[in-house]
Amino acid sequence: GETTQTIVVSSEDTYTVTVTDNNACSNSDSIFINVTPSSDPTIITAQLSYCINGGTIQFEAVDSGGIWLGTAINNTTGVFDPTKAGVGTHQISYTIIGKCGSSDTVLVTVHSAPFVYIGSDKDICSGDSIALDAGSGFVDYIWSTGETTQIIVVDKEGAYSVTVTDGNTCSGFASVYINEIPLPDPSITITEFDYCSNDSPVQ
Fold first, then answer.
1. Which of 6, 16, 111, 150 minimizes the number of CB atoms within 10 Å of its CB?
2. Is 181 within 8 Å of 124 (Cβ atoms)?
3. 139, 132, 130: which is closest to 118 by C-alpha?
């Protein structure tokens, strides 16, 4: 229905134009416009914050067939390895190549694992107890005993471990072995209970 020299179209169809000159002579021409759907490279990986010891992550995008680029990410599969990337902020991009291709970019953050130390292996005397302290500043504490406090008190021989979680939901682990030493036996052993005052000393 347009009557201008130029028109703008955006849908797939056959378009025809008829022109008329000053002599009232007319002619027509047609063209088919094929619309290729644009690729959607939007990265849809929900989480963009990772722990360095949390394992690999599979990145995903709306449309497949693109190329992944960035630190420690597999160009084909989109598997990202925080351990190889290292602590810090990293740029990850996804590009679909072609006439209607496009790209998307996100920033991901890799956090360090929290350091937790509950000491070296220790000896305690039978009947004694010892406090194990995982340190302050963590969000969660889970001990092998089932306790969830920063400090626990133990009085039995065995291996004790704790897993802590920080504000970035990253976890750290530590363990220690407590060795219980039996108390010495103070029993007095003698073979005779009656002695004369002039007998030799008894050992």
1. 6
2. yes
3. 132
Angle at 131 between CA 125 and CA 135, to 5 degrees: 150
Q: What is the pLDDT along the chain (203 residues), one digit of tens a residue?
A: 888 999 998 888 889 999 998 988 999 999 988 877 788 999 998 789 999 999 999 999 999 999 999 999 999 999 999 999 999 999 999 999 987 789 999 999 999 999 999 999 999 999 999 999 999 999 999 999 999 999 999 999 999 999 999 999 999 999 999 999 998 877 766 665 565 665 665 55
Q: Which two tokens stand for residue 95?
A: 């590009």
Task: Name the H helices within 30-96.
Answer: 82-85
